[in-house]
Amino acid sequence: MKTLFQTMSELRTITIDEVAQHSDEESCWIIIHGKVYDVTKFLEEHPGGAEVITQMAGLDSTAEFDDVGHSKDAMEMAKEYLIGQLPEDEVPEVKALVPPTPAQPVAKPSAMKEFLTSSTFANIWIPTTMGIGIYVFYKCVLKSQAVSVY
Questions:
Q1: Tens of pLDDT along 97-136?
Q2: CATH class of segment(s) 12-91
Q3: Gene3D superfamilies attached here (predicted)?
Q4: What is the spatial distance between Cα 133 and Cα 139, in angstroms, rounded to a whole number?
Q5: Residue 85 in contact with residue 8, Cβ under 8 Å?
Q6: pTM of the predicted structure, to 2 decimals
């Protein structure tokens, strides 16, 4: 009987080609971080549904597994389905989720541009300026009408 704490050297070596042969609900194997898991019995228990896993059956699912952000409990539970490991030369390289660095430093906008594009300018200064403009226009129209009446 295998233990939950098998070392990588004790695990059976399984090739990617062999994993690819187990790509349906009858026999569903996936690869996560170079380890091979037979998750056939887990399909109906998976909280996201069987289809989530069967879409990745027979393939490397490392990125998808990591992207979901599985809990520590889920990672511990996965050990129950561990059946082997890929040969070192077949372990896919996992790309880190690091945003690309810009080629040149991003220039900080000028203080005036920041002010003109800020919500303060849009929400306070524009309506205030429009109000003053309307008031001045209204007063000019009233003065001109008052002058013409007399």
A1: 445 555 566 666 677 777 667 776 677 877 888 899 898 8
A2: alpha beta
A3: Cytochrome b5-like heme/steroid binding domain
A4: 10
A5: yes
A6: 0.56
Q: CA 28 to CA 22: how far, in whole Å?
A: 5
Instruction: Give CA torsion, residues 125, 127, 128, 131, to 10 deg.
Output: 160
pLDDT of res. 74 = 81
Q: Kindly report the number of other CB atoms within 10 A of residue 92's CB atom.
A: 14
Beta-carbon contacts of 117 under 8 Å, excluding residues fewer than 6 positions away, are 109
How many other C-beta atoms are found inside a 10 Å radius of the C-beta of residue 22?
19
Q: C-alpha distances in angstroms, 17 versus 11, 136, 140, 148?
A: 17, 81, 86, 96
State the DSSP code for 82: E
Average pLDDT, the chain: 78
